[in-house]
Amino acid sequence: MMSISNNFVFKALHVVAYIIFIGLCIEAGGLLVNFVFSLYKPEMVENLYQKLNIVEMYERSQWNFFGLYSFILVIAILKAHLFYVVIRLMHKMDLSKPFNSFVSRQILKISYYTLSIGFISHIGRQLARNLMHHGLASDNLNDFWADSQAFILMGAVIYIIATIFKKGVEIQNENELTV
Asked: What tens digit of pLDDT does each residue of 10-32 get?
């Protein structure tokens, strides 16, 4: 049985998850619109979302620009989708009986998305560093992959919890069948 304060905290976290999801959708949408504009109106590159000024990179190498921008886009979309999965989990989760296969699958998905964000961020960061060695300034993109190690660590922890949760659901289902 869930206490009133725990129920309040769960609902407050649900609202926070919605706010984060909306913010991430706005960010991903803004980045996507800017990407499309940069394809058709390259003069817009200097006015990108969040004041990204990577005109020099665009002018010197469009392949590097589109490559790094693709990493930024994928990371932003994965973060928004991660919170969509979290919200979906919170909507359908029955707090009186949380151990079921749906919750187990959703937690596993959350771990995969978190790990993916971490690994893609890490690859993007390494590519940006490599481009800096070739004289292309990309240090203003560091905010997009600053948390790569944290995402990898968090994804690993969530994966371990998901594995334990999955085994717990299997044991619970076996016990229900034998009774």
From this structure: 899 999 999 999 999 999 998 89
Q: Token match 């292309």: residue?
A: 136
Terminal C-alpha separation, the chain: 22
Instruction: Quote the pTM value.
Output: 0.86
The model's confidence at residue 164, banded by pLDDT at 50, 70 and 90, is very high
Answer with the residue of higher pLDDT: 137 or 169.
Answer: 169
Return the closest-CA partner of residue 118 out of 151, 76, 146, 141: 151
Contact 144, 124 (CB under 8 A): yes
CB distance 44 to 34 below 8 Å: yes
Alpha carbon separation from 164 to 20, 78, 106, 159 (Å, rounded): 27, 24, 13, 9
Instruction: Tell me how far apart the alpha carbons of residues 19 and 4 are, in angstroms, rounded to a whole number.
Output: 23
pLDDT band at 53 (very low <50, low <70, confident <90, very high): low
Alpha-carbon span 160 to 98, nearest angstrom: 17
Let me know the angle formed at the C-alpha of 81 by 147 and 58, rounded to the nearest 5 degrees: 60
CB contact at 8 A, 38 and 58: yes
What does the alpha-carbon distance between residue 120 and residue 147 come to, in Å, rounded to a whole number?
A: 11
